[in-house]
Amino acid sequence: MKLKTLIITLLVSISSFASDQLFEKANKAYNNSDYTSAITLYDSILTIGLESSELYYNLGNCHYKAQNWANAIWHYEKSLKLERNDKTIQNLELANLKIIDRIEDIPQLFYKKWWSSFISIFNTFSWQLISILIIWLALTIKILSQFTNYKKEHFLSILYSLALISVFATYSSYQRNITKKEAIIFTSSVVVNSAPTTNSTNLFSLHSGSKIEILDTIGEWINIKIANGNSGWILQNSIKEL
Amino acid sequence: MKKLALILFLLCSATLNAQTLKVAADKNPAIVGEQILIQYSINTKGDNFKSPNFKGLRVLSGPNPSTQSSYSFVNGKSQNTTSTTYSFYLKATKEGTYNISPANITVKGKKIQSKGYSLKVVKGNKKNKAQQKALYDNLFIKVNVSKRNIVVGEQILVTYKLFTRVDLHNTELSSLPALNGFWAKDFEASSRFKRDVVDGIPYNVATIKKSVLTAQKSGELIIDPMELKCSIRIQKKRNNRDPFANFFGGGYNIQEEFISSKPISIKVADLPNPPANFKSAVGAMKISSEVDNTTINANNAITYKLTITGTGNIELIEPLDIQFPEDFEVYDPKITDRIFEGGRKRSIKTFEYLLIPRYKGNYSIPSANLIVYNPKKKQYETKKASKHSLTISASKNNEQETGNTSQQQVRAELKDIHYIFTESNLQVIKERALDQKLFYLLFFLPILLLILLRVYNKIVGKTDESSSDWKNKKANKIALKRLKNAQICINNNNFDGFFEEIEKSIWGYFADKFKVSIADLSKETVSTHFYSNAIDINTEKQFIALLDECEFARYAPASNKNAQMGDILNKAKHIIIEVETALR
Questions:
Q1: Which residues of A touch B470 (CB under 8 A)?
Q2: Domain A181-241 class in CATH
Q3: Is B409 inside any structural domain?
Q4: Residue B443 and residue A132: Cβ atoms within 8 Å?
Q5: A150: nearest CA in chain B?
Q6: How far apart are the first and last CA of chain A?
Q7: How much is the average pLDDT of B507-526?
Q8: Least confident piece of the model among A3-7, A16-20, A60-64, A65-69
């Protein structure tokens, strides 16, 4: 058993050494404006099985420079899934200016905005850890106070409320980052139908680079929703899931 | 009756006759190249004449309106007649049948239409043709183009010359050449005739138009023909019978002829791989720059002058991109040019920038670059103006510079994407969160344990000490709330009111707590309720004592009223807390 873990760690460390070299090489290619080879180099790191928000960000930059807007947006979004970064958000904004569709968000109520910015302070895993740690800490303190005269009633009630907040945040974060499926449109133009059949009414059309949310899948049709609240059905082969 | 009808009919026909627009030609059929007169006439006054469509025929002149009026007085009856005629002079260039569409005129608000007219044009006989040819040999336009294979932006000189051997009375431009794809610049041409000999035949030659064309797009561009309307004086055959006519030189006929130049095609090639900052300057140019002042106080103006000299499409050069320092206020340049022969001769164009430095320091204006394509050498040349370094000293009126109000904001516009990350912490691709089931297990397990712990405590009967603390605090809070009014009385030194309030509060508390109606309030009910709720006997005694003391104090106040009030308030508070804790 020990040997097996040792081998795995060894393999990972070797591959990470190789991938670091690949990363540097790709950065050099980017500096020399050789974006196509930079893309292949960065992609080879992904095929090794490694990823990072920076890697996706750099790939997004390469695609941006190569004017593949849909690919650039896809990689920026992917990078944001792993870690929120101002640079990524700004680059994504620029890339979104280049595409055909301009989808206005539905304005959110102020408390929803606060809540969503609050839950994006940590990623889902951190929120899960925080909630679990708080509740176990509360339990430990409670057990300690059982056997000693160590009274921490106030502290405990604060911990309980914190646990309550963090478990809600965890739930929201999980819904937003893990359960919610999003995708980017990759075909240059796709017609959104009102039902999952080809002869149904055409509602509107979307162009490459637009971000959509996947609500449902029936066969090769997917039910999508865009940021302004409109929804409809499109074929699965026109998107790339995040 | 019959008579009346007849008169009416006559009248009607008369008015009908009066209102027809007649059309007539002086000759039909006509000969190609001949002048044809077509007249539209109506014997009344009309207006708003709408010309017909002379498709295929050339209108030499017209519509020329003329009105005739006559007034006659016959047998005591006056008659007034008016007729209007619109005449057109036409010319056919090709034989065939021409259908002229109807013309319109409005008479007294009524629209009247003429009939369509069919005009036949036949070929002239040999004599006519020979005449025509002789004419075109003696009267023609020649176009000279300086170059026929050029690149976009290159200039060519086009000269139109009129060669004539006939007696020209008048010339008039009837259609200017359409210069699609060219930017044309005309310059003065002398219309004076000079004598020139071509192939041994002397001609009178006049330069009627001279322009410089700059090609704006690539491909085969065609300079359309120029057309000139010439009036030629032809001497009439000598008429010996009229000596005066010959004497006064009146023996001329005016003949109108159209002559046109031949269309010329120019091959325009694209510029070979234009560099990034190429501003489509083509020719041989030089660039220079000057600054009127290199050391100046802040907030004073500097003039930066950029001069482009040389030949080529100088007139079309737009202001260059010059990277002025960010702290300079830059105004739009004043552009002046002196272009000679459309840029074929050495011309000058200047851009004068007004710069106002706002802050002191050493600045430099980088050299302005002009990329010129030289069509002779067939290559791009980069012409550089000189670089200028400026020393700006502090402004004299200091408050203008970096005052608190006019601080410079440092900001970067979101113009390009941010640079890539050079380092990265690469990790194995995996799900970046715990499974939700596992999470709920880990989260709700301790909660379950906490609940179990509490249940266990309840069963074992161990008083939750920590919770008794909590209850004490709550009892205290209730007491304070009950005695709030009494506290206010102390603050206001309201002695009588205080005892009343204490009594009211205590009794009110008791009544609320044990759900006793106000009518039943007595010391007996106090003891029974305290007993049944297993409250300490001491508390009951204190309760009764406090009420007695209040009653007593109301009628026999102590010397130190404030101390007494404080004492009683504390006692009341104590009692409420005691009861509250005992009841749990």
A1: 153
A2: mainly beta
A3: no
A4: yes
A5: B466
A6: 35
A7: 78
A8: A3-7
Same domain, B576 and B470: yes
What secondary structure does DSSP assign to B216-245, as a single string? -S-EEEEEPPPEEEEEEEEEPPP-TT-HHH
The helix/strand/coil state of B83 is strand
Q: Which amino acid is at A222?
A: I
Helices of type H across B493-536: 495-514, 523-532
Phi, psi of A188 (to 5 degrees): -60, -35
Which residues of chain B make contact with A30, given a CB cutoff of 8 A? Answer: 420
Tell me: do B96 and B189 sit in the same domain.
no
Among the candidates B355, B373, B400, a domain finishes at B400
Q: Identify whether B429 is part of a domain.
A: no
Structural domain contains residue B408: no
Domain's final residue, options B74, B103, B124 = B124
For residues B163 and B140, is the Cβ–Cβ distance under 8 A? yes
pLDDT of residue A133: 92
Give residues with Cβ within 8 angstroms of A105, minimum separation 6.
Answer: A227, A228
- Span A46-55, pLDDT tens digits: 888 888 888 8
Whether B404 shows a pLDDT value over 60: the answer reads no
Q: What is the DSSP letter of B273?
A: S
Contact (CB, 8 A) for B41 and B21 = yes
How many CB pairs lie under 8 A apart between chains A and B?
A: 105
pLDDT bin (cut points 50, 70, 90) of residue B16 is very low
CA B559 to CA B546: how far, in whole Å? 19
pLDDT band at A73 (very low <50, low <70, confident <90, very high): very high
Residues of A in contact with B420 (CB under 8 A): 27, 30, 54, 57-58, 61
Task: Report pLDDT digits (tens) over B290-348.
Answer: 888 888 888 888 889 989 998 888 888 888 888 888 778 888 888 888 888 777 888 89
* Dihedrals phi, psi of B166, to nearest 5 degrees: -105, 170
Q: Specify whether B308 is located in the same domain as B340.
A: yes
Do B64 and B144 belong to one domain? no
| CATH C-level class of A2-98 | mainly alpha
ipTM exceeds 0.85: no
Same domain, B478 and B562: yes
Query: H-helix or E-strand containing B485?
Result: helix B484-491
Q: Please report, for residues A103, A126, B479, B487, B553, the alpha-carbon distance to residue B576 in angstroms, rounded to integers and kept in the order given.
A: 65, 49, 6, 15, 20
Question: What confidence score (pLDDT) does residue B400 get?
Answer: 47
Pairwise CA distance, residues B388 & B363, whole Å: 9
Q: Which of A52, A94, A163 sits opposite B424 (nearest CB)?
A: A52
Which two tokens mark B336? 């002046």
Chain B partners of A138 at a C-beta cutoff of 8 Å?
446, 450
Domain count, chain B: 4
- The answer to whether the CB of A239 falls within 8 A of the CB of A212 is yes
pLDDT at A221 over 70: yes
Q: Which amino acid is at B381?
A: E
Domain enclosing residue B84, as ranges: 19-124
Are B256 and B147 contained in the same domain? yes
